[in-house]
Design a protein that fits this description.
Rossmann fold, alpha/beta, ADP binding, about 35% helix, EC 2.7.2.3, binds adenosine-5'-diphosphate, 6-stranded parallel β-sheet, binds magnesium ion, elongated, nucleotide-binding, about 400 residues, Phosphoglycerate_kinase_sf
């Protein structure tokens, strides 16, 4: 199966409905972080250069099928106009008269933006009539919203079946990098997992442990594994109801011949706010009144050595509560090791991507995935509806 890309689509002079992910944080009526907008610029530039008439569409937040003044896309249109240095034609309408007029008046290379798709309840219902209304605005369809590809909505799934369609450049890059992971035959393959809970990551562990050689576990979820193995974890975040699950995953890894490495030391404190009491202890030295908030320096050194020898690294989940500077060093250390690794490196997950951006390491990582839930579902081996429809058999 092959992904249809912009090269497969005749867009010259055509009206191209382009689904993007402009679900950006807003503050005081302005875009607070335009990373997701900038990520779509290559696709927009490529389409404009070919004389396409772009009709961009996105969701923003969770308006649940109602018009919400604070979730209009006007601030996005302003930011996009500034980035492109053109006047983006934003309409406060999705498929009505205003939208149709805008679409019909766009000239080659011009860009329009529809209102927040989720103001219409039919978007999330993948309503066929709504998909037809969207499709009628354009002659072809490009999906560049990888972050929304795990949802079968009208703008991600319904419309793709109605028009000649293809993946945008951002979508294409995501699929290629993540497919390389799923089909990995590069060894050593090191999988690094952290973050809050194992319950969010069970599918990823089950699927990627088929191919990985080493599994490095940190973050809050390592606490559940440690507890399952009989270690004292005190007041740490740990999932009491997942201890059996943790033991099952450990024996699955053993059956598959994967080495699982847990933290050997930790940064602990009585509570998150008590940073002045933070101290590093060996992993068997955690007291009943301690909570683990980061991996310690010995763990960073041991993990870094494994990462340095890897041909392929996949990292999801911060190693500690990186939002608090006192508990950021573990995530920084692992981030630096991943950045320095000569193998192919992929970071996925909303918080993980934010962490490597904040630490200034993103440029040195081969692929920082823009999808949160979509990335995890892809790595679990699930078929994403938004992606499936862009695939072509016998291509
Ligand atoms: P991602 O979004 O990259 O998939 P997660 O959402 O699973 O990552 O996890 C990120 C969260 O995990 C962060 O908010 C971080 O503070 C939290 N976290 C990491 N380690 C710990 C820990 N030891 N105790 C509590 N929370 C933790
Ligand atoms: Mg998260």
């Amino acid at each position: 199966m092959r992904l249809r890309t912009l090269r497969d689509l005749e867009v010259e002079g055509k009206r191209v409905l382009t689904r993007v992910d402009y679900n950006v944080p807003l503050q005081d009526g302005r875009v607070a972080d335009d990373t997701r907008i900038r990520a779509t610029l290559p696709t927009i530039a490529a389409l404009r250069k070919r004389g396409a008439r772009l009709i961009l569409c996105s969701h923003l937040g969770r308006p649940k099928g109602q018009v919400r003044e604070d979730l209009r896309l006007a601030p996005v249109a302003d930011r996009l106009s500034a980035l492109l240095d053109i006047d983006v034609r934003y309409v406060r309408d999705i498929t009505g008269d205003e939208a149709r007029t805008m679409a019909s008046q766009l000239g080659p290379g011009e860009v329009g933006l529809l209102e927040n798709l989720r103001f219409d309840p039919r978007e999330e219902q993948n309503d066929p009539e709504f998909a037809r209304e969207l499709a009628s605005l354009a002659e072809c369809y490009v999906n560049d919203a990888f972050g929304a590809a795990h949802r079968a909505h009208a703008s991600t799934a319904g419309v793709a079946a109605l028009l000649p369609s293809a993946a945008g450049l951002l979508m294409e890059r995501e699929i290629h990098a993540l497919t390389r992971v799923l089909e990995a035959d590069e060894h050593p393959f090191v999988l690094i997992l952290g973050g809050a809970k194992i319950s969010d990551k069970i599918g990823v562990i089950e699927n990627l442990s088929r191919r990985a050689d080493t599994l490095l576990l940190g973050g809050g979820m390592a606490n559940t594994f440690l507890k399952a193995l009989g270690y004292e974890v005190g007041r740490s975040l740990a999932e009491e109801d997942r201890l059996d699950e943790a033991r099952r995953l450990l024996s699955l890894a053993e059956q598959r011949g994967i080495e699982v490495v847990l933290p050997s030391d930790a940064v602990v404190a009585p509570e998150l706010g008590a940073v002045e009491q933070a101290r590093t202890v060996p992993i068997d030295g955690v007291g009943p009144d301690d909570a683990i908030f980061d991996i310690g320096p010995d763990t960073v050194a041991r993990f870094s050595k494994v990462i340095g020898d890897a041909a392929l690294v996949v990292w999801n989940g911060p190693m500690g509560v990186f939002e608090v500077p006192a508990f950021r060093e573990g995530t920084r250390g692992i981030g630096q090791a991943v950045a320095a690794c000569p193998g192919f490196t992929v970071v996925g997950g909303g918080d993980s991507a934010a962490a490597v951006e904040e630490l200034g390491l993103a440029d040195r990582i081969d692929h920082v995935s823009t999808g949160g839930g979509a990335t995890l579902e892809f790595l679990e081996g699930k078929e994403l509806p938004g992606v499936q429809l862009l695939m072509e058999e016998n291509g």
